[in-house]
Specification:
This protein is of the alpha+beta class. The chain has helices at 2-7, 16-30, 78-85, 92-97, 136-144, 159-162, 184-192; strands spanning 39-47, 50-58, 64-68, 106-114, 128-130, 154-157, 173-181. 28% of the residues lie in helices and 24% in strands. The chain is extended. The protein starts with a helix and ends in an 8-residue tail after the last helix.
């Protein structure tokens, strides 16, 4: 469905995704708050039957931290947060809502090309799609479930050609991103076995 949605148009933020994130961070800071990077939340603190804070560690220097607040807003993975808090502490309805399958993982390649004009190769302010099958779901199942990449489906995007009026790359460089579906557990298993996926 994500690929189908993208095929309807060249959806891309005017000034790159970085601008979106920077704008959110600026808004948080302008309200007098602080954005802390590299801080991993490991525990939710309960106070009076509700979550009243978090604790964890700074992953750069391994220093611990603790913050208390009311309310605590959590924007991490709901299943992971619920398991950290303790799933039995949630009501039946909430537990049912947390019982969902994760979406398929993907594989993304970021490429920087030098001294190549992508517009001369037919790229522009749009996404390019290739499907190895007329049925995209069947193609994805073949790659994700059967690990068969003999006729892959993938998307190519050229962010430098989509963000109008923004040129934040060194002269002569272009960015190409290639995206396809990939079963994380399968590739993790291959890595642990010291094996690689052989492509045709």
């Amino acid at each position: 469905m994500l690929f189908t949605g993208y095929q309807r148009g060249a959806y891309y933020p005017t000034h790159h995704f970085e601008h979106v994130i920077d704008s959110l961070v600026d808004k948080i800071k302008s309200a007098g708050s602080t954005v802390l990077l590299n801080h991993e939340v490991t525990t939710f603190t309960e106070m009076g039957g509700a979550i009243g804070g978090v604790s964890g560690r700074n992953i750069q220097n391994d220093e611990s931290f603790e913050f208390r607040a009311k309310p605590v807003v959590c924007n991490m993975d709901p299943q992971r947060a619920a398991s950290m808090i303790g799933l039995p502490k949630f009501g039946k309805k909430q537990r049912q809502r947390l019982n969902y399958d994760y979406s398929a993982s993907n594989f993304m390649v970021y490429c920087t090309l030098c001294d190549i004009d992508l517009t001369e190769l037919g790229f522009g302010c749009w996404n390019t799609f290739h499907s190895g099958d007329t049925d995209l779901n069947r193609s994805f199942r073949r790659m994700y479930d059967d690990f068969d990449y003999s006729n892959p489906s993938f998307a190519i995007t050229t962010p430098g050609l989509m963000a109008k009026g923004v040129n934040d790359r060194p002269q002569g460089e272009q960015i190409v991103e290639i995206l396809t579906v990939a079963n994380y557990a399968h590739f993790k298993s291959l890595k642990q076995q010291g094996r690689s996926l052989k492509l045709p």
